[in-house]
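Data card: per-record layout.
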Amino acid sequence: MTNKPITVFGEVLFDHFPDGSCVLGGAPFNAAWHLQAFAQAPRFISRIGRDPLGDAIEAAMRAWGMAVSGLQRDSEHPTGSVQVMIDDGEPRYAILPAQAYDFIAADELAVEIHDGLLYHGTLAVRHEVSRRALAVLKARHRGKIFLDVNLRAPWWKKDDVRQLLDDADWVKLNHHELAELQPLSGDIGADMRAFQRAYGLEGVVVTYGDQGALAVDAAGNHVNVAPAPALQVLDTVGAGDAFAAVLLLGLNMGWNIKLTMERAQCFASALVGRRGATVQDIGFYQPFMEAWALNQ
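The structure for this 296-residue chain is written out next.
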């Protein structure tokens, strides 16, 4: 079942874990991967190196049924890699500079006008080349824009993020990131409403890790969700991306914000019981597909 098209722009990379394993990752890629499993056929736009890791990404996308027409190849820069360290159960990332996803080329983008939803994050536009490509993509876009804030030091500047916020309709970020972008009063609901008004947003979602998430929208709705107390956690890498994927799904399917948030929390809670940010077993998604009537 496919609704309006969803375009996902940004990084795809490999997360390298302390135990020597590596897992496909990158917030936009993770969201697109989940959306593909949810039968949304996202249009994923990124750039990978002409190297074995790039070959592995393209092969994985094809095997998962994802379109690769928006996947650019780069002969000069390597496929993205990130070292993941786990401190007290929370992931910490060492992100390398000058990766292929920093050089998404505007002149290699499809020239048609896009509608539906456009998702992007903040990391992939740390370099002016990919930032220019996103600007071209936005100029050809005629639908809603969903900004997933991922502030990874030293790869962001407040003024740049504020410009992205000005273009957005929906924003997801964690409570630390909200504090980086706006002074907090101690009343998170009031702070989120102020943030929503400041940037003219339709909705804002703030995640709190194992405490859950909050959402406010322009209609005055305020929704709070939390994981089950006895949740089994293997690692939290990609949990926010899983949450974002279901937010996009809900927007695309026309679900109300309460239902969307509840389903996003449910899916993210399931993902943290797996290693890494993507799951290559379609059976993992089937209970959600059935419960949410996505097979119809």
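Known properties of this structure: The CA atoms of residues 10 and 124 lie 5 Å apart. The mean pLDDT is 93.

See the next section for split statistics.
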